[in-house]
Amino acid sequence: MRSACALLLIVGSTLLAPFGAAHGRQDPPVRPARKPLAIKGAKVYPVSAPPIEGAVILLDGTRIKAIGKDVQIPGDATVIDATGRVIIPGLVDAGSSVLVPRGDSGTSGSAEHDVADGVDTFSEEDKEVLQSGVTTALVRPLARGQFNGLEAVLRLLPNRDPQRFYLRRAAALKMTLGFSGADTSTAQQRQQDLLAARQSFEGAKAYKETWDKYRKDLAEYEQKKKQWDEQQKKTPPKADPPKADPPKADPPKPDPSKPAAPEPLKEEPKKPAKPRVDPRSEVLVRALDGQLTVHIEAHAADSIEHALALAAEFKLKIVLEGATEAHLVAEAIAKAKVAVILGPVFRYGIPKVDYVNHAMDCAAVLAQANVEFAIGSFPNPAAGHSGSGASRFLLEAAACAVAHGVAPERALRAVTLDAAKLAGVDRAVGSLEPNKAADLVILTAEPFDSAARVDRVILAGEVVYERKSD
Amino acid sequence: MRALALLAGVLALHSSVDGQASEGGPRGDVIAVKAGRVITVSGEEIKDGVILIEDGKITKVGAGLEIPAGAQIIDASAQVVMPGIVDGSTDLGVEGSSNEETDEIVPHVRILDSLNLRQPALQRALQGGVTTAYVGPGNRSVIGGLGSVVKTSGRSLQEAVVREDVALKAAMGSGPSWGNFPPRGMPPTSFYARRPTTRMGVVWEFRKAFFEARAYKEEAPARKDPAREVLVKALERKVPVRVAASRAGDIETAVRLADEFGLAISIEEAQEAYRHAELLAKKRVAVFLRPTYQTSTLYGAEGSEVRFTTFTALLAAGVPTALLAQTGVEGEGALAMAAFAVKYGATRAQALRAITLTPAELLGVAERVGSLEAGKDADLLFLSGDPLDVTSRIERVMVGGKVAAGRKIVEH
Amino acid sequence: MRIVIGAALSVILAQAGWTRDDVVVVKAGRIVTVSGPDIEGGAILIKGGKIEAVGKEKEIEIPWDAKVLDASKMVVMPGWIEAHTSRGVDRPNEQVQSVPFVSTFDSINPVDPYFEDALRQGVTSLFVLPGHQTMIGGQGCVLRPHGLTTEQMTVVKNHALKLSLQPRGGMSRMAHLAAIRREFDEMLQYLQDLEEKKREVPTAAGGQKQPPPEMDIKKETMARFLGGKLTGYVYCPEPADVLKAIELSKKYKFRMKLVVGRECWKAADAIAKEKLEVVLPAEMVYWETDEEKHQEILRVLPAIFHKAGVKFAMQTDSSSLGTSYQWYQAATAVKHGVPRDVAIKSGTLHAAEVLDLADRFGSIEKGKLANLVVLTGDPLDAQTWVDRVILEGAVVYEREKDEKLERVMELKAGK
Amino acid sequence: MRTLLGVITLLLIPAPGFPVPAAPGSVQDAAKDGVIALKGARIVTVSKGDIEDGTILIADGRIKAIGRGLEIPAGAETIELPKGSVAVPGFIDAHSHLASVFEIDESTESLTPQVRAVEGFSSTHADVRRATASGVTLVALAPGNGNLVAGRVGLVRINGRRLDRMIVSDSAALKLSLGDEALRRDREPTSRTGALRMLRDALRDPRGEISKSLIDRREPAIIHARLAADITRAVELKETFNLKAALVHADEATQVLERIRNGDVSVIFGPLTVSDKRAKLETPAKLAAAGVRLAFCTDAPASAEDQLRVTAAIAVKYGLDPKAALRALTLDAAALLGVGDRFGSLEEGREADVVVYGGDPLSLASPVELVVVEGRIVHRKPKR
Question: Which of A142, B139, D11, D205 has the fewest CB atoms within 10 Å around its CB?
Answer without folding.
Answer: D11
